[in-house]
Design goal:
The protein has 147 residues and is an alpha+beta fold. It has three helices and seven strands. The chain is globular, with a radius of gyration of 15 Å. 22% of the residues are buried.
């Protein structure tokens, strides 16, 4: 298993930040390299929501199916996917006020296939950089909305 973490203090209210990280259609607006989102369930909010996200990774696209497993507005949302022989378990935790939010993200990568176990150490830096880029984009987007 490999764990990735990131944290940002965002000059925006906790409800607004939660609305971005917990709802994929808003997260897509904040993160420019998400090319497409498709809901796989009728519901689009809360536990059990499933969706397919397509991201641009350099010149290629990568598609992942995710499911919301925990949803506690405005403090926590957890999403899980099983892609490429690895379970990606991501939790966003939020604390704050109507004016400032601390957003923490923790992602556990749990490989269950041989190739995934071998490649995870090699792709770790790429994943860590992508997480930091996403967190920066969420912070900038939320702060721009609150101006």
């Amino acid at each position: 298993m490999k764990q990735f973490t990131s944290e940002r203090t965002i000059e925006a209210g906790i409800d607004d930040v939660f609305d971005v990280v917990a709802h994929i259609e808003n997260f897509q607006k904040a993160v420019p390299h998400i090319a497409n989102v498709e809901f796989l369930t009728e519901q689009q909010r809360g536990v059990g929501t499933r969706f397919r996200e397509t991201r641009l990774m350099g010149k290629r696209e990568a598609t992942t199916e995710l499911e919301v497993r925990e949803y506690e507005p405005p403090n926590l949302v957890r999403m899980v996917s099983d892609t490429g022989g690895t379970v990606w378990d991501t939790t966003f935790r939020l604390t704050g006020t109507a004016a400032r939010t601390v957003l923490s993200m923790e992602m556990d990568a749990i490989p269950h296939a041989l190739m995934a176990r071998l490649s995870l150490p090699l792709i770790g830096r790429v994943v860590a950089k992508a997480i930091e880029t996403d967190m920066d984009a969420v912070g900038a987007y939320c702060e721009a909305l609150s101006e």
